[in-house]
Amino acid sequence: GAGVSQSPSNKVTEKGKDVELRCDPISGHTALYWYRQSLGQGLEFLIYFQGNSAPDKSGLPSDRFSAERTGGSVSTLTIQRTQQEDSAVYLCASSSQGGISYNEQFFGPGTRLTVL
Amino acid sequence: LAKTTQPISMDSYEGQEVNITCSHNNIATNDYITWYQQFPSQGPRFIIQGYKTKVTNEVASLFIPADRKSSTLSLPRVSLSDTAVYYCLVGSSLNRDDKIIFGKGTRLHILP
């Protein structure tokens, strides 16, 4: 079956613009996660959805970042007024249920965001 | 939330067995140990998971001592394609509010 997909694969934007990143999880997976990975660094947890609700938003780096998930499926991560330090690969993952540190996460290919 | 410590990097040669150890001194009773592998320009992928003793699958083995304060990922007869970053995670199936911490992982470089 289809894995996790993300779009766009690459996004170049100018400083100050808003961007929207999309994640389509594996069908039936109730848990969805967003991470950020800067060059040569580990994964930085951003936010986790269980269904449509987000029990943990504490990883969002600033109020310019927001995420939503509708219908328990597709999620969008929005970054407002982008800054150069937002440049990174944004990874989405999904898993079959909660217990989020335990259940196998399936990752998408990521969106590479470059803010000029 | 149990914190993990891994070596930043390791080098090995093709055909060798590679062992990567992860320390998790404050692991909780309900916590499992999970390892992920990340190739360049890809998202991580699940390799193996265990609770205690030894787990083996087609990719790797995971050794967990009785006190569970550490774990060792063993990759048999590595090849160049095993060059990747390996992450150790610790967490419970019971806690839905864990913040997932991948850390920086161990960057494994296989030499010919």
Topology of helices and strands:
The complex is a heterodimer of chains A (116) and B (112).
Chain A lengths: L4 E3 L2 E4 L5 E6 L6 E7 L6 E7 L2 E4 L8 E5 L5 E5 L8 E8 L10 E2 L3 E5 L1
Chain B lengths: L8 E5 L4 E6 L7 E8 L6 E6 L2 E4 L4 E4 L5 E6 L8 E9 L13 E6 L1
Parallel strand pairs in B: 1-9
Antiparallel strand pairs in B: 2-7, 3-4, 3-8, 5-6, 6-7, 8-9
Structural commentary:
The complex is a heterodimer of chains A (116) and B (112). Chain A is globular and about 35 Å long. Chain A has no helices and eleven strands. Chain A is 0% helix and 48% strand. With 116 residues, chain A is an all-beta fold. Chain B is 0% helix and 48% strand. Chain B is built from no helices and nine strands. Chain B has a five-stranded mixed sheet, with no helix packed on it. Chain B is globular and about 40 Å long. The model of chain B has no long low-confidence stretch (mean pLDDT 90). Chains A and B meet through β5 and β10 of A and β3, β4 and β8 of B.
Cα-based radius of gyration of chain B, to the nearest Å: 14 Å
Order of helices and strands of chain B: EEEEEEEEE
- The total of helices of chain A stands at 0
Morphology of chain A: globular
According to DSSP, the number of beta strands of chain B is 9
**Mean pLDDT value of chain A:** 90
Give the terminus-to-terminus CA distance of chain A: 37 Å
Multimeric state of these chains? heterodimer
Summing up helix and strand content along with how strands pair, one would put the structural category of chain B as: mainly beta
Question: What keyword list fits this structure?
Answer:
heterodimer; A: 116 residues; mainly beta; seven-stranded mixed sheet; four-stranded antiparallel sheet; B: 112 residues; five-stranded mixed sheet; 9 strands; 48% strand
Task: Summarize this entry quickly.
Chain A is 0% helix and 48% strand. By secondary structure, chain A is mainly β.
